[in-house]
Every structure is written in C-alpha cells, then in structure tokens.
Amino acid sequence: MAKDIDDLPKNAANYTALTPLWFLERAATVHPTRVSLLHGSVKYSWRETYQRCRRLASALNNHSVGLGSTGDLSSMTNLKVAVIAPNIPASYEAHFAIPMAGAVINPVNIRLNAQTIAFLLGHSKSSVVMVDQESFTLAEEALKILAESQNPFKPSLLVVIGDRNCDPKTLNYALNRGAIDYEKLLESGDPEFAWKPPEDEWQSIALNYTSGTTSSPKGVVLSHRGAYLMSMSNPIVWGISEGAIYLWTLPMFHCNGWCFTWTLAALCGTNICLRQVTAKAVYSAIAKDGVTHFCAAPVVLNAIVNAPKKDAILPLPRLVHVMTAGAAPPPSVLFSMSEKGFRVTHTYGLSETYGPSTVCAWKPEWDSEPPIKQARLNARQGVRYVGLEGLDVVDPKSMKPVPADGTTMGEIVMRGNVVMKGYLKNPKANEETFANGWFHSGDLAVKHPDGYIEIKDRSKDIIISGGENISSVEVENVMYTHPAILEVSVVARPDERWGESPCAFVTLKPEVDASNEQQLAQDIMKFCKENMPSYWVPKSVLFGPLPKTATGKIQKHLLRSKVKEMGPVKASKL
User: Fold this and answer.
1) Residues 476, 501 within the same domain
2) Do 177 and 300 lie in a common domain?
3) Among residues of the chain, what percentage have pLDDT more than 90?
4) Which one of 232, 253, 288 terminates a domain?
5) Which of 392, 426, 458 is the last residue of a domain?
6) Tens of pLDDT, residues 546-561
7) Which of 171, 261, 312, 555 might form a disulfide with 162, Cβ 3.0–4.6 angstroms?
C-alpha cells in the first residue's frame, strides 16, 4: 500500500514507454480514409499506410529480424535495417515498420559513394538492406567492397524498392541479381500484425550517420523516448497543425527527416513525396497539391528565390510555411523568401539532437521592424526547443557561460531528452562530446542580450588572420548580397604575411556572364571592401560549383583541402 504521494507504483494502466509508433495507429483510427502519402500516381490512406507498415514489420519478423512474435528482449538479434532510398513511400513506411518489428532503422544517404556506404553497412552490421531501384547498383558495389574487406559482412536480406516513376529496367536488373521485391515482401506479411511497443523507451529506434562535413561519419544512436519528444516538439514550436499538407523536400534519411516522419502521423497530415528536389518541383507541388509546409536547408531556399520566372508560380496561392536548418541562412535569402510569400521559421540543430533543437522564436514586437531588420533577427539560431532542457554558450575550457553581450564567442552546448544516446562503437568520441555533463556541438556562437544565440562559425572554420578572428559566416552573409553571387563559402587559406586569410569559393547566378573571371573577382573584392572590415576581405576568389552533402550543407573540409593544394597567398601579392 502506498504510504505517501510518491510511493504510488507504475502499472499497465498508467504507464507505457514513450514511442512515436502509436501516432500511426491513431491516424489510421481517426482519419482512416484521409490521404497519408502521395507520390505521383501512388496514393495511400492512413488505414492503408498502417496496414502496409504492419505487413512489413511482420515480414521482417518472419525473416528473423527484430524481436520476433514473442517480443522477448533476449532474442534481440539482427536489429538494424539499412534503407538506401530517396523520399518515396517506402522510406516513410520504414520509419514505422522497422521499429514496430523491434529493429532499428538505419537510413543511408543516397549521395554517398560506394566506399562510404560499405563502411556504414559494415560498421552498423545492418542485417537487412532495403534499396531503391535507382540506387541498387550503388548498393551492390558497396556490398562487394564490404565482402572483400578485412572485416567482411553480408546482410541476410537484400530488398529492392520499385518505383513506377522510374525505368523498369533498373528494377528488373535488381530482381535478376537476387534481390527480393519490396511489394512481394509486404505481401508475405500480416496486415493485422500485433506489433508491440518497446518495453523500455531508452531502446534504440534509429541509427543515423553524421554527414561528414568536418570529419568521418559517426553513428548517432537515437531512442524511442527522444524521437517521441522531438516529434511532439516540432508542431508546438512551428505551429504546424492537424491535417497539414507537407512536402518532403528534406531527405528522410537526414535525422529521420528531423523527426517529421513521425510528426506527420501525429498530425494526421498528408505527406507529399518528392523524389528530386528542384525549385520547379516545389512551386508545382504548392500549386497542384495544396502544400502548406515544408522543411529545407538554406541551399534549397536559395534555389527557390533564384528560380527562373518560368518555374516560379507567383504569387503563391496561399501562405506557405517553411522551416529551415542545416546551415546558418544568409539574411538576404530569408528576406527574399519573405518577399515571395513564404513564412520562414529558422531552427538549428544537429544529427546528435534529433534535428532542430533551437528556434528563432518570432516575437510580435518584431512585426513593426523594417523587413531587412526582421530578416537579420530571424537569421539568429534563437532559443531552445520545448523538448530541450538545457542550452547555453560557454567558454569551452572553463565551461562558464559567456556574457550576453552579442560579441563574446563561445561554444554552443546542450543537454536534455532530445540529445542522442551516443555514438555507436565510439567511446572516445562519446567521452569528448559529453564532457562536463553537456553535449558539445563544436559550433561557435554569441549570446545576445535577449538570450537568443547566433552562430558565428564552427570551431574549425574560424579564420585567424594576423591574430584577429574572422567569422566565415559573417563574410559569407555580406557576400550573399552581391547581385552576381548565387552561393558562396569562405574558408581559411594559408597566407605568408597574415598566417591565414579568407578565401571565397563562389557560384555565380546563371544569368551572369562568367567569361572574364578575373574581372568578376576584382569586382567582388571591391564590393567586399566597401561593405566589410578590410581584414575580412577575401584575398582569393574562385568560381565553380560547391561540394555539398545530400542535405545541402557545403563540405568545407573539401574546400580546405583544395586551398592547401593551392598553397599560401604570397606576401608580394598583398
């Protein structure tokens, strides 16, 4: 018998482990006939999606993947299922079906090379590989590399996902190579499969590998608890409501689509799958499919605002809400999006924090500010998400918070239930990243008097020129206002006189005449001299496309490698 208020025990009636899987069951119950997924001519209702997910979970159990029909934790073998696919219905279904089977989803970036995918599959020991028909040869090459490696590993099941929007020859090739057809696999499963939630909410739901923009990919392990809390935080922070029509411009393989895979089921919304993201496709979906919301990295927003007139359907038929994260968005891009009728919510986070975990929460008093000032305010990374318990900017050595003066830089640190469980098989990295009871982001920022944080750079991207720290982000923000520049990334280049100096890699807008690059470089440097401190001005400007990850992040480590090959800026040229 309970003696006091805190002695009342948990029981089956008042406690269950938190998991986002229940959102799907509820959506199928509340809105069984509402469209859940739309992909070209393919359309499913929430009832059908729930049945398909149960079929897949059942089929995986039949192949000894996951907990099996008994749910016995002692039989947890073959727990990881890799999914190599773009934004198609099967990718969405996998986010529910795989954990419903008691297994862990391992979404793989489809733009990685075969060598890297081989590393990920071998490191994760994924027992099943589900691959889109157009990525099959890539997966096949990766599996061959893995089989011939020093630590060979072979998945027990290879599944090919067909897409009627693609050439059937690639599907037939995969089937002839012994892969199991995804739809045939589903047919073997039970649509009434009695799945079980996790016994412990700390149980892993997903394994996501970091993008490798600054180092080798690391396996980020996420829990059912964290996924649930982030899924519920998303609509609270963004204001996305029940029945929203959501366009998948953000890859589902990136942080599980920032957990919006599960959020959309909680909202009983409609998922519009977009296999290839282009500005034309985005505008078309807004006009044709009634899109109300989408998430995208700043590079996608840049493409939208610079879309040719023939591709841009303007004015927009309705207000379209956009969440952006992944890199610090230039204020100029936010301003242009606002001018075109998009309302952008700026967030910030990492794979290690289930996606976005801070938000530049809009304040009503900003409504009266000039539009360009609004854009500058909205370019800050903001305050913590509802589901994040701790956020600060600290001196990384003393761990003391920096003053809220908008100028003193420190490292962004976080703690709470939407921080990862840890890195898979990497105790050294775990010890470093969780030092002093905080998750260390590696991002350098300032804290403003109103408590909002603003990223100035990653610790590896700060340029130290003549003893002065230069934020590459601030240099980029100024350069983005140049009328000829479509994209820009600034890194440190060795400099004989200053130690380091800024080097700008620039992609020009399509309409710009690029025949005289030397003159263009001089014009850009002149513009920089007129709009920024002299020591910020890039000493080198190079033109061409920028290397990016699948989510649009510019791979600065590749640019740093390039400037090393170029050698230092000569003192005589200054």
Assistant:
1) yes
2) no
3) 78
4) 232
5) 458
6) 998 766 778 888 998 8
7) 171
Encode pLDDT of 390-439 as tens digits.
999 999 999 999 999 999 999 999 999 999 999 999 999 999 999 999 99
Sheet strand arrangement including 180-181 = 180-181, 157-161, 128-132, 80-84, 104-107, 204-209, 219-223, 422-423
Amino acid symbol at 198: P
pLDDT in tens, 131-162: 999 999 999 999 999 999 988 989 999 999 99
Total domain count, the chain: 3
CA 454 – CA 412 distance, rounded (Å):
9
Helices 114-124 and 136-147 pack at an angle, to 10 degrees, of: 60
- Termini Cα distance of the chain: 82
Q: What three-state secondary structure class fits 540?
A: strand
Q: What distance lies between CA 14 and its chain's CA centroid?
A: 35
In this prediction, residues 186-207 reach a mean pLDDT of 96
Residue 399 domain boundaries: 277-458
Cα separation, 68 vs 263, whole angstroms: 27
Q: For residue 538, give the CATH number of its domain.
A: 3.30.300.30
Phi first, then psi, for residue 529 (nearest 5°) are -60, -30
- pLDDT for 565 beyond 80: yes
Q: Are residues 444 and 517 in the same domain?
A: no
Within this chain, do residues 296 and 442 fall inside the same structural domain, yes or no? yes
Q: Is residue 555 part of a domain?
A: yes
SS3 459: coil
Residue 489 has pLDDT above 90, yes or no: yes
Q: What is the DSSP string of 255-315?
A: HHHHTHHHHHHHTT-EEEE-SS--HHHHHHHHHHH---EEEE-HHHHHHHHT--TTT---S
Question: For residue 18, is it within any domain?
Answer: no
pLDDT average, residue stretch 42-47: 98
- Secondary-structure percent of the chain, ordered helix, strand, coil, rounded to 5: 35, 25, 40
Predicted confidence at residue 71, as pLDDT, reads: 38
511 and 476 in a common domain: yes
Any domain includes 19: no
pLDDT at 214: 46
Q: 404: domain CATH number?
A: 3.40.50.12780
Task: Look up residue 112 and give its amino acid.
Answer: L
**Block residue for tokens 């907990």:** 67
Specify the pLDDT at position 76. 43
DSSP assignment string, 89-133: HHHHHHHHHHHHTT-EEEE--TTS-HHHHHHHHHHHT-SEEEEEG
Total residues belonging to the chain: 574
- Does residue 560 lie in a domain region? yes
What SS3 state is found at 188?
Answer: coil
pLDDT for residue 68:
45
Tokens standing for residue 414: 């976080």
Single-letter residue type at 114: A
How high is the pLDDT of residue 573? 38
Rounded Cα distance between 141 and 130, Å, is: 14
Position 574 scores a pLDDT of 35
Same domain assignment for residues 57 and 130: yes
Are 485 and 555 in the same domain?
yes
